[in-house]
Amino acid sequence: MNEEDTTISLHYLSLFLSRYYKKRVIILLDEYDTPMQEAYVNGYWEELASFIRSLFNAAFKTNPYLERAIMTGITRVSRESIFSDLNNLEMVTTTSEKYKDSFGFTEKEVFASLWHPIGRAVLAGMT
Question: HSE (CB half, 13 Å, CA atoms) of 12?
């Protein structure tokens, strides 16, 4: 699929979802970095980077039906690269303070899970 077909398809998908649900869409893009790693290793980085820039622009910057988007990945990519056209990016890592209560395990949960039968009883009593 070429860049133009992809961006038009994404635009229409967002439009149709927005009309059907009568609200703006939320786009979840999991492991955005996996195809980029493959492209870099296998020698087609420039082609994919161009495609991704176009896709991200259509999905996240010029999409009038977008409420918000979340992208997940393990590779931190600089804002000067494929993200250069995007505004309002917030990089959140596993060490970010902002969402520390939303992801991962608490210290109590970790220690409880280490002591399996007893840990289950402790976790069952947690709220």
Answer: 6
Q: What are the tokens at 69? A: 């988007």
Give the residue carrying structure tokens 């969402």. 99
| Tokens describing residue 119 | 């840990």
pTM of structure: 0.67
Q: What is the 3-state secondary structure (H, E, C) of the chain?
A: CCHHHHHHHHHHHHHHHHHHHCCCEEEEECCCCHHHHHHHHHCCHHHHHHHHHHHHHHHHHCCCCEEEEEECCCCCCCCCCCCCCCCCCCCCCCCCCCCCCCCCCCHHHHHHHHCHHHHHHHHHCCC
pLDDT tens digits for 57-115? 889 889 999 999 988 887 766 554 667 677 777 777 777 788 777 777 777 777 777 66
